């Protein structure tokens, strides 16, 4: 008599024999489409950096142009490139913000194109390889497995994989770049306040990782 868990999941024995499936996925399938991965990653980084520029530029412009509390100084921009007059600095800020919004939209499109292409190509490769493998199995395998369960793997599981590669990785990289970018700006503006603000982040990450590690087997 079969064990209840085997009846609930006829592929449990196969899953237990599989070691590091995600590592194999990226090593075997991801390497074929690393160009799209690099494009999506590059687009994510540049798009998020450009998204962070407008509030930074506005803050510097308000302090330097309208309140005269600080010098008009932009990080990573040589002072010789900046206008010397208040009016010039104002229009330079407007142009830089407009460029940030326009460039951000372009790189958001590049990011989405890269991640979508990466996910869709891997999905196609996994699905066709799985179907090809199933065609080569003997009849004993199909006698012990439910056809509906196998079709679910070919359809639903591969679709979920595509959503993870597209939405999950996209969001993860976007969030990582945003946190690093905001942390850099905070450290540049006020290091002490930045430390106090960012201190809970590794604690929250550690607690979240431990929680997922505990509930994952269930």
H and E order: HHHHHHHHH
- CATH superfamily name? ABC transporter type 1, transmembrane domain
Instruction: Give me the count of strands.
Output: 0
Looking at the structure, the CATH topology is ABC transporter transmembrane region fold
Total count of domains: 1
Second-tier CATH architecture: Up-down Bundle
Report the radius of gyration as a whole number of Å. Answer: 25 Å
Helix content: over 70%
Given helix and strand content, the structural type is mainly alpha
Subcellular location: Membrane
Main location: membrane
Organism: Halolamina litorea
Domain ABC transmembrane type-1: 38-218
What are the salient characteristics of this protein?
218 residues, mainly alpha, ABC transporter transmembrane region fold
Explain how this protein is built.
The chain has 218 residues and is mostly helical. It has 9 helices and no strands. It has a single domain (31-186), classed as ABC transporter transmembrane region fold (Up-down Bundle). Helix content is 81%, strand content 0%. Helix 7 (147-189) packs antiparallel against helix 8 (191-198). The protein starts with a helix and ends with a helix. Residues 1-6 have low confidence and may be disordered.
